[in-house]
Amino acid sequence: MTRLDRELERRGLAFCRYADDCNIYVSSERAGQWIMTGITAFLAERLKLTVNAARSAVARPWQLKFLGYSVTDLCLRGRGHSLVRTIEELRPVLRGWMNYFQHTQGRRALEELDAWIRRRLRVIAWRQWKWPHTRESRLRALGLDAQRTWNLSVNGRGPWWNAGALHMRHALPPKYFANLGLVSLVDTHQRLQCSA
Length: 196
Prior knowledge:
With 196 residues, the chain is mainly α. The protein is 62% helix and 5% strand. It is built from 11 helices and 2 strands, in the order αββαααααααααα. A two-stranded antiparallel ribbon has the order 1-2. A hairpin with a 2-residue loop joins strand 1 (14-18) and strand 2 (21-25). Helix 3 (71-77) packs antiparallel against helix 4 (83-100), helix 4 (83-100) runs parallel beside helix 11 (185-195) and helix 6 packs antiparallel against helix 7 (146-153). The protein is globular. The two termini are 28 Å apart. The mean pLDDT is 84.
C-alpha cells in the first residue's frame, strides 16, 4: 500500500490511510468522483487490487466512518442531551479509540481532534442556549465581561462560528470539559505511552 501512498502524494491529494482503509479529501463531489475512478483504476491496474464498491463512496467526511469510528454521530445525537450526557457517551468511544491507536506518533493530529471535539460540544451548548437572553446569562455566569455578553449573544453568527470564537473558548475552555469528564486524546495517549 506504500505505492498507493506515493501515488496519492504525487497527485497532491490529502488523505488518511490505515492498512487498507483509506479516506481521500477533495474540495467537491465532482472531484471526488473523478478521484474515485482514477484511484480505483490505479489499484486494479498497478497493484492488482479490487476496491470494495459496497464499502466505498464519495461523501462528506462526517457522513462516513473511518476505521469503524464516527465521533460526529455522537456529537449530532447530543443536540437534545445535556453536555454531561453527551460526554458520557463520548468517553468510552474516545478511550477505546486511543487504546486502539495508542502507537500513533502524531501528537498534532490528536491535539486537533481534541480541539475539534471541544468545538462540537460548544456548538451543542450554543444551540441549547438558543435565545439571546439565555446566551447572555450563561456567558456571564461562565465569567465573561457583562458589558460584552449581550453583543456576543446577538452577533448573528452561526453555532459553528461561535463555538470557535474567543468568547466561547474562554467561557468553555478545555478545563471546563475535563471537569465534566471529557477524555483528552492527547493526555490518554501520553498516559498509554508512559505505561507501555
